[in-house]
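To: structure subgroup
Subject: Chain for Friday's discussion

All,

I'm putting the inputs and outputs inline so they're searchable in the archive.
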Amino acid sequence: MTVAAVLLGALTTHVTNHAMERNRNRVMLLTRWDDRKLDAYEGYVDTVRACIFLAVQLYEHKEGLRESEMTEREMTAALAEAGRHRGRAFERIMLLGGDDVVEAAHQLNAAALQIDWQATGRIAGTLEEWRERNRITFKEINEFHEAARVDLGVQGSLKDESHPERDLLLPPSSASQRSDPAA
């Protein structure tokens, strides 16, 4: 009877230790993937914003709104290179992101491309259309943030009353600017 009790205790201890080790490994794996997801999400938004910054520089230079030390050709090349990085960052989202994050990234990518295309002249548009494209893109960035937060299990929401919608931050108008009073 004593030997049977010792064997049963040893077997129970072994099964319990195995189950605990397996659970610990599963938690470590989930944490590791969450870290990688966070890096991918942050990197993607960073590259999208870098592209927007370069597109704004190019657009404002082409429209005569701001002088630049770079030539139009250099800015176009820089924007193309940033777009390549954005594409690589997007691929990481496709590999690591949940369904809602991937869909939000698709929407954000489509909106950001509209900015690139107007900046490079692939599509035409007025200054107000330019600003609307930027508004839409920043709204899509917020949608991406929201989907990423849910995917990572971050509590809270960016869409509630404590986070009102904000418009583009535009410089005050000046007499030296051309005929656009909303600038």
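Points worth raising on Friday:
Residues 2-62 form the longest helix (61 residues).
The radius of gyration is 25 Å.

D.
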